[in-house]
Design a protein that fits this description.
Strand content: 15-25%
Structural class: alpha+beta
Mean pLDDT: 89
Number of helices: 16
Largest sheet: 6 strands, mixed
Helix content: 25-40%
Low-confidence stretches: 60-66
Strand order of the largest sheet: 6-5-7-8-10-9
Number of strands: 13
Distance between the termini: 37 Å
Shape: globular
């Protein structure tokens, strides 16, 4: 700021949970344009500095600015909660990943929570912050109505089943997955031999989506909760708040968005518990799982105030769930073509013709129709032309 620099490029987010993201917010408030390095460069930085990142959370926070930057009110002490309001099973689950030799009431474990900004010391007493209540609170909604996850299954016969997951945030993904596995024992219909492995990979995708929704949501949006909705064709996960600035929905849909966390304090805990990709969004793993299973690629969209992740349960789901106004305009052959395209980010005329086993002229006609309907956009000219999802 003193040097009046107006544009800054950042490699990766500071790994210290009490610092990460605050430099960006400070600069942004002062009118400085901030960009993040591209994903491949970020991964190189993480690899070369692995030791530093492992030790970072142990370092004392250094406040370089007179102005204290607060990302959210959840960083502050939760005046409605005390240590006794934290769930021992939730704390034990986290403790088992980070400090296996002492108890959850030990000085060492509480010092760790203090360093991470989950506890604050005031007048000689340790009190939980809002984030500690979200992560480990017995009843986090009593102090934070936005906590938790709403689950709904819409069955083919028109009936619904509802389940609310209102306990400690660290336990919610496991509880939600158990509920889904009990209700959807065979979400991917394959041979008995293939089904078990396929289902395991499918549920990994769902867990990644649920964790992302809980960790990266904007908890300052009042009256909105994370939602998990299941239909015969789709699993839809809604998370309040747009993509983390300056990430866009388009970058998320490309599965190559920079690694940035809106709530570093939450993300560190989930990463330590091996439920979240370190500093990332799990985008590549979700894309890889979908490809392995022959499913359409997950889809990100924005429905204010929610960032929406759509996971497809069958290869045909992306076609079956198109708007009726579009579906009626597609021939049976084009519908098959769209099912093929749903598992990739784009194609060329020759690739489409080869995989669909049609002539170049037919491939061109299909692709042109998809562009006209807004399903694809044409990029480039001549032999280098690509057809990409918008």
């Amino acid at each position: 700021m003193d040097a009046r620099i107006k544009e800054v490029w950042v490699g990766v987010q500071d790994p210290h949970p009490k610092v990460g993201g605050k430099g960006f917010v400070y600069l942004d408030k002062q009118g400085v344009t901030v960009h993040w390095f591209e994903r491949d460069l970020q991964e190189a930085i993480k690899k070369e500095n692995a030791k530093f990142f492992e030790q970072a959370e142990m370092k004392a926070e250094e406040k370089e600015h007179h102005e204290e930057v607060v990302l959210t009110e959840y960083e502050k002490i939760s005046t409605r909660t005390h240590l006794d309001d934290l769930s021992e099973p939730a704390l034990k689950q986290y403790h088992s990943f980070v400090d296996g030799n002492d108890s959850v009431t030990s000085v060492a474990f509480r010092r760790r929570l203090l360093r991470q900004g989950l506890l604050e010391e005031t007048k000689g007493h340790l009190l939980p912050t809002g984030f500690a209540n979200l992560l480990f609170g017995k009843n986090p909604r009593e102090a934070s109505p936005e906590a938790g996850l709403l689950g709904t299954i819409h069955y083919e016969d028109g009936t619904e089943e509802i389940e609310n997951f209102d306990g400690p945030l660290v336990l919610v993904p496991g509880e939600a997955l158990k509920w889904l596995k009990d209700k959807l024992p065979n979400p991917i219909k394959r041979t008995a031999v293939q089904r078990q492995e396929a289902n395991a990979k499918f549920f990994e995708m769902v867990r990644e989506g649920v964790v992302n929704a809980l960790v990266h949501r904007d908890y300052d949006i009042k009256g909105a909760k994370c939602q998990l909705s299941v239909t015969p064709d789709l699993i839809v996960i809604k998370s309040p708040g747009g993509p983390i600035k300056p990430i866009t929905v388009e970058q998320l849909q490309s599965f190559d968005a920079p690694m940035v966390s809106r709530n570093p304090m939450l993300h560190v805990v989930f990463s330590k518990m091996e439920m979240a990709e370190e500093r990332g969004l799990g985008l590549k793993s979700m894309k890889a799982r979908a490809s392995e299973l022959g499913l359409p690629l997950p889809k990100y969209s924005w429905e204010e105030p929610y960032l929406v992740l759509t996971l497809y349960r069958t290869a045909e789901s992306a076609t079956k769930t198109l708007a009726k106004s579009i579906l009626v305009q597609l021939t049976a052959e084009e519908q098959t073509g769209w099912t093929f395209l749903s598992s990739r980010t784009g194609t060329t005329q020759s690739e489409y013709a080869r995989n669909m086993e049609v002539t170049a002229r037919t491939a061109q006609r299909h692709l042109t129709h998809f562009v006209k309907l807004g399903l694809l956009k044409r990029v480039g000219r001549g032999p280098a032309t690509e057809y990409l999802k918008p």
